[in-house]
Design goal:
With 155 residues, this protein is mainly beta. The protein has two helices and eight strands. It is elongated.
Length: 155
């Protein structure tokens, strides 16, 4: 999946930026193994209209994960992002994230092949009815200092 959040209100110069990204799980299929749920970066061509080619733009650095056994299909799955994920938060624009399995992130299948038995995670998107299960990104930061004060000119 690809998820974009407008984080422009954080503002240039903000410091101590950290994020927790949350997805409301709806299904988990473990027909051919038990990969973990990961969050990564993404670089879609447009942040308002996805195309098939955008899914090839998912990055392979994990920003954090939820272990397969802990993944909920009835509640939010919170990923407290690591330093790579925190640095992916745009201070002045759109922050772009992707969701993948650990097999995608590691480029290595770790299950047992079973025909027509996928290993997938499904989450609600912002297109789902209502807003109580929308994906969410909570950003904590210290705002940039604002102007003011008297400049000091010394000898």
């Amino acid at each position: 999946g690809i998820f974009c959040f407008d984080t422009s209100s954080v503002g240039a110069g903000a410091t101590g930026v950290t994020g927790i990204i949350s997805f409301f799980g709806t299904t988990k299929n473990i027909g051919n193994g038990s990969p973990d749920f990961h969050v990564s970066g993404s670089t879609p061509a447009s942040t308002s209209s996805l195309a098939n080619a955008d899914y090839g733009q998912l990055q392979t650095t994990s920003f954090g994960n939820v272990a397969n056994a802990s993944y909920s299909t009835t509640a939010y799955n919170d990923v407290d992002m690591n330093a790579s994920g925190d640095s992916n938060i745009s201070l002045t624009g759109i922050s772009k994230f992707g969701t993948q399995t650990s097999w995608d992130i590691n480029n290595s299948f770790g299950g047992t092949w079973v025909q027509n038995a996928p290993a997938t995670f499904t989450v609600n998107t912002a297109d789902a009815a209502g807003t109580t299960t929308d994906p969410k990104l909570v950003v904590t930061y210290t705002p940039a200092p604002t102007g003011g004060g008297i400049p000091f000119i010394g000898y």
